[in-house]
C-alpha cells in the first residue's frame, strides 16, 4: 500500500483522494502510491462563507474580485491578498508563504503521527533518477515522460546519462526495495517520504498545478496479498478520517473500476471529493481541484484585534488583550494578535476573514470596562455571527471558544455533506444517468456492465466511474445499463 | 541574518558551524545564510566509545572494519551496518534510511521551536532558479557554477532558459524579498526553509558530501544594520546552544577574518568545531566533516532487549518487558523494544551499540523474578558500564534512567571539551604557530597583521584563521606575527 499527499491542492478549494495501487513484485508485494490531496482552506472556505468585502474603515488594498464576477480572478486574488503564495520567477512555480506553509506543517504533524502509529518510517530518497529507470517501466514512461524535467548538465559537463527530476519516487523506491528485501524477515517494509516532486505541467495555477510541488508518498512491501490489501484499506481509512475530521471534507472512499485503475496495478482505491462546481476530484493523479473545500486547520486559529481611538485607551486595551491571548495560548488554542497601528481594525477584519480565521475576538475600551470581549464567527456572516459580552474570565472564555470551534468544524462538515448528498442522484437507467450528468451532478447506480460500456458512457457523457463506494446499499440490484444482476453500485461523474 | 543547517553532516562525525553574512540591499539589510552542520551520531559517537565488535552469540553479518585499521572502510561500514543510509542509483546520491532520518526530524523539531520563538516563519521557495539569476551575482556564479545541476529539457522540449537546481536559495529569496519589501512596515522579514539542495560535488561520500542534501536555510531582512547584527548574533547563539546542549559538540563561536569572510558579506560569523582528527570544520560552506561527533538525539533512546532460553520463559519475560516499555514511554523517554527471534541477544547488543543507542536494558527470566533489570551504558565499555538489579518500580527506574541519560550527555560533552582544549595551544610567535600546526593542533594567538600575512601563513602552513573567538582573553596583547598591539586573538587551524 502506499499513499501520496500533495501540498498544491492544499490551499486550493479541494479535497482528499488516495489511490492505492497493489502490484506484485517477486515474492513481496510492493504497492505504489495512493494520493491524498488534502485540502483547501482560506480560498476554498469562501465558497460556503463568502468573503465579505465590506470596508469598515479599511483601505481597499488587497482588493478581491467578487467570486460571482470572475471565479479565476477571485481565486488568484484571494491567494495573493491572504498572502498564501506568490509566483516564483520560473513559469509555473510558486513560493509558499508562511500562512500557506503553516497549514502544510499542520497536515504533516497530523499525518506523521498516523503513519508512525501504523508502522511507517520516514525516509528520504534522492530526487535524481536515471533516465533509464523511467524507461524501464512502460506504463510509467508513458504516463510521465511528457511531464519530465531533465538534468543534462552537471558540474559544468554534459552528463553521460540524463537524470530525471523525480515526478514520483516509484522507480527509485522499487530499486532500493529490491536491494533491501532479501527474505520474508525484511517484510513488511513500510516507508514514507515528504518531498518535492516535479511535473512539467503546461497550464499552471497556484496550488492547483505547479511545476514543483510538495507531497507525501508512502510505499510499502508485504509478504502476502492479504496483508497488502489490509494495509491499503487501513491507509484509505487514515485518509478518510483525515478528510472528515480534520479537513471537513466528506469524501467517498471506494474502489476504482478496471478502466480507471492505474496501469500495472491490481486494484486502485480512492477517496473522491465533490468540488464546489460538483466536478469530482480526479483520482490517480494529484492535481485538479475544484471548489469544495475545508477549513482544515483554521479551526485552531483565533485572531484578536484590539480597538482603541484615543492614545490613553491603548494601554488598558493592550493589557486586556495580552491577558486574553495568554489565557487562550495556555488552553492550547492557536491564537494570533494583530496590534499593528498601520492598519485599521476594519482592514484587519477583512484580512483575517479572507485568511479564513474562524473566530475573531474584538476588544475595545468598553469591553475592558465590562471584562468581556466580542466574538465573531467567520462562517456566519454579519451580525448573526457576532456575540457580545463574552466574559474574559479564563474558564468561561476558553470553554466558550472551544465550543464555538467545535461547532464551526461540525457545521462546515455538515454543510459539505448536505451539498454532496443533494448532488448525488440514484439512477436506474442509462437515460437517467445522462440526465443527471447533464445537470452537472453525480449519478449512482448498479453496474455490472463491460469495460466497453464504461468507455461508451465516458464518450457519450464525459462522465467516468469515480469509484465503487465502500458504502453499498443492501439488497438485490440490476445493472442500469444491461439489466443483469449487479453486486455493486458505482458512482459516475465528470472530473477535473 | 540567516542560517543553514545541512543533513549530510548529520550522521557524519561532525559539528556545527554557521556563518552569518550581512549584506546591505537598498534600504533593508538582507543577510544571507549562516550554516549549521549539526552533527554526528552513531558513526561519530564511536570515536569516543569505540564500537565493540564482540560477537557474543551474534553472527558476523554487518561486520565492521575496525576504525584503527582503515578509517574510510570503518566509516562506510558503520553507515551500512547501522542502516543509516544507502547509496542511491545516481553517483553521489544517497538514500537516508529511517534511523538517519529520525535524527534529522529530531533536529527539525528542536530548531523549528527556536526559529519560531525568534520570529521566523517557515516558507517554501521553488527549487528551479533561472540561470540568469545565478549569473547576476558575480561572486555567486563564481562560487557555484562548477557545482550546478542544470535542467535543459522540460516537458519534452529544450528550454529557452536553462534552469539551475538550487545550490542555495539566496538569489531567489532576494528576488522575492525585493518584491515583498515595499517599506519599513514590511521589516523585519524573517523566513526559514527546510529543503533539498543540489551541488555537483566531484568526490562524494555518504553524509559528508552528496550531490543532493537536506538542509535548513534562514534568510532575514532588517531596517538597520544594528538590528541585522543583533539577529545574526542571536542565531549564532541558537546554534551554539544547539551544538552544546543537544549535540554535545563544544564549538567555538567567533567572527571570520576578512580573508575568510564570504565574498559580498560585511561580516561572517561562524562556529568552529574540532574534528576527531583535529581538523577544523570549514566555515561558509556546508560539507566536510571530521571525526568529532555528538550523540545528539540518541540521548533520548533506550533499547530493551528481552532474553529467554526456554519457550516457557518467553511469556513472563515479554510481560515484564511490555510493562517496562510502557513505564518509560509514559515518562517521555524514547524507547525501542527488539523482540525479534531472528537475531540473538548478542547480535542485538552489537547492533544497538553501533547505532549509538546510549542505554540498553537487558531483561531475562531471573530479572523478572527479582523485579529488576540490567542497564548498560554505551559510553562506558565492558562490565563497568553495566548495572545489575535496577528496580522495575516505575518511579525508581524512570529516575534512574533519566539520571543516566543526563550523565551520558554531560560526560560526552566533557570528553569533547577536554579533547578540544587539550588540542588548542596558545602561541606567541610565528615559529610556535608553525610547530603547533605541524603537530595537527589548533594555534591561538594575538593577531593584527595584514591580509597578506594571513595568506602567507596559509601558504606556508596550510592553516587558516578559523575565527576570532567571541571568548577573548583579557589584557594587552601583541600580534605574534608583527609585534604590534593586537585587540584580539585568532584561532588558526587546518580545515577540511
UniProtKB/TrEMBL annotation, chains A, B:
Which top EC class applies here? ligase
Enumerate the catalysed reactions. Answer: tRNA(Pro) + L-proline + ATP = L-prolyl-tRNA(Pro) + AMP + diphosphate
Tell me any Pfam family this protein matches.
ProRS-C_1
* 4Fe-4S recorded as keyword: no
Q: Which CDD domains match?
A: ProRS_anticodon_zinc, ProRS_core_arch_euk
Which InterPro entries does the UniProt entry name for this protein? aa-tRNA-synt_IIb, aa-tRNA-synth_II, aa-tRNA-synth_II/BPL/LPL, Pro-tRNA-ligase_IIa, Pro-tRNA-ligase_IIa_arc-type, Pro-tRNA_ligase_II_C, Pro-tRNA_synth_II, ProRS_core_arch_euk
On the tree of life, the source organism's domain of life is Eukaryota
GO biological process, alphabetically ordered: prolyl-tRNA aminoacylation
> Per the UniProt record, which EC number(s) apply here?
6.1.1.15
Keywords assigned = Aminoacyl-tRNA synthetase, ATP-binding, Ligase, Nucleotide-binding
Annotated ranges, domain Aminoacyl-transfer RNA synthetases class-II family profile: 91-345
- List the GO cellular component terms: aminoacyl-tRNA synthetase multienzyme complex; chloroplast stroma; mitochondrion
Q: Give GO terms: molecular function aspect only.
A: ATP binding; proline-tRNA ligase activity
Name of the protein = proline--tRNA ligase
User: What organism is this sequence from?
Assistant: Triticum turgidum subsp. durum (Durum wheat)
User: Taxonomically, what lineage is the organism?
Assistant: Eukaryota, Viridiplantae, Streptophyta, Embryophyta, Tracheophyta
